Amino acid sequence: MVIAEKKQEGMRLGRYELGRTLGEGNFGKVKFAQDLDSGLPFAVKILEKNRIIHLKITDQIKREIATLKLLKHPNVVRLHEVLASKSKIYMVLEYVTGGELFDKIASKGRLQEAEGRKLFQQLIDGVSYCHNKGVFHRDLKLENILLDSKGNIKISDFGLSALPQHFRDDGLLHTTCGSPNYVAPEVLANRGYDGATSDIWSCGVILYVILTGYLPFDDRNLAVLYQKIFRGDFKLPKWLSPGAQNLLRKILEPNPVKRITIAGIKADEWFEQDYTPANPDDDEEDIFVDNEAFSMHEVPSDGDRTPGSPPLINAFQLIGMSSCLDLSGFFEKEDVSERKIRFTSNHSAKDLLERIEDIVTEMGFRVQKKNGKLKATQEHKPQKSLGSLSVAAEVFEISPSLYVVELRKSYGDPTVYRQIKTSIVFVQLCNKLSSDLGLPPSQELLATEV
């Protein structure tokens, strides 16, 4: 166990001196660090054990550490060692200075094919290496691809990765996870999927964005987005070279059986241009992990759930709730008097419902609570009729650390004016909830109207 000490020159962690904060997330901070023996820079991810236990992500952190221990490749962010105290875990990581690939595309737009091909070659090298080690990332996206000072790719964030022990007896993975725009259709289908094949799909989405500057599958409505993914419904710009278009079609093939493999990508004529494979560093010494890093209290299992806790649903059931598999929803006329908003959050069900109650009370609603559900009513009394807006709130648990809030709106006034007014109030409520809970839409808040 290593105890961090505060010195005049800064915070000391063993032989590392901690400096400025590089970033902050739900689980802790990332700080710049310097090895006082070698002078080399590092990034130290500082995780609060109490926060990890509260969010019930102990297994996720253990998985990330176990995964990164296996990976020593030029295109994968390197874990150097894991230190710990009784209250914190310190992951000493490679210091990557070039930022996210997402930021590069967002600021500069699409890349020229030669530059984009080089980055894609590095991505495939890194992903291929991970697969050979039995590691499947399952959340490949632009935000999880970092760039070093020379512009080379570094794959990061293995919190959702899968290892051989996560496969079921059928040889497939069954956990629905990933980011909506990048997720493969077979992952959504909930019949089991091959981790390598689904990662290849995500690589294809990344290549598309690199070469075009925008996503191949995108829609503000999750149901419509997933329908596009299921069908492989995307368009290739005419200005892309025939070779790039051909490879993208092979990767973004919705049928996983027909989708090109890593070996097929490496043998592709467009991919092979100026290709120099990277050399893994597997001969380097083992990574030290302090046993204290895993000395955390166990979270109660599903069988120990307390009465009144929110219903547990899996991610595929969540997708089903958004009607993407009930295709009749795409052809039936929408009832404009009823509208739903759903979003995900790491806040507990209790905190979410309490905050919703506070907000709707401040906005003049009357609140009723029953069986973990909340109903709020706001009445309006125009001269000739009684109009009312009702909002029902319910929280579902989709994983030990992730909840989905569903807000359902309905109103009893037929006038267009009142419909518009109640819609505005409903949007204000949703915006205030996301703002007060500190949920930035780009990362922690996924909202969709269905």
Automatic annotation (TrEMBL):
Domain NAF: 308-332
Gene3D superfamilies: Kinase associated domain 1, KA1, Transferase(Phosphotransferase) domain 1
Reactions accelerated catalytically: L-threonyl-[protein] + ATP = O-phospho-L-threonyl-[protein] + ADP + H(+); L-seryl-[protein] + ATP = O-phospho-L-seryl-[protein] + ADP + H(+)
Gene Ontology BP annotations: signal transduction
Protein kinase domain span: 16-271
InterPro entries in the record: Kinase-like_dom_sf, NAF/FISL_domain, NAF_dom, Prot_kinase_dom, Protein_kinase_ATP_BS, Ser/Thr_kinase_AS
Gene Ontology MF terms in the entry: ATP binding; protein serine kinase activity; protein serine/threonine kinase activity
SUPFAM superfamilies: Protein kinase-like (PK-like)
Name of the molecule in the record: non-specific serine/threonine protein kinase
Lineage: Eukaryota, Viridiplantae, Streptophyta, Embryophyta, Tracheophyta
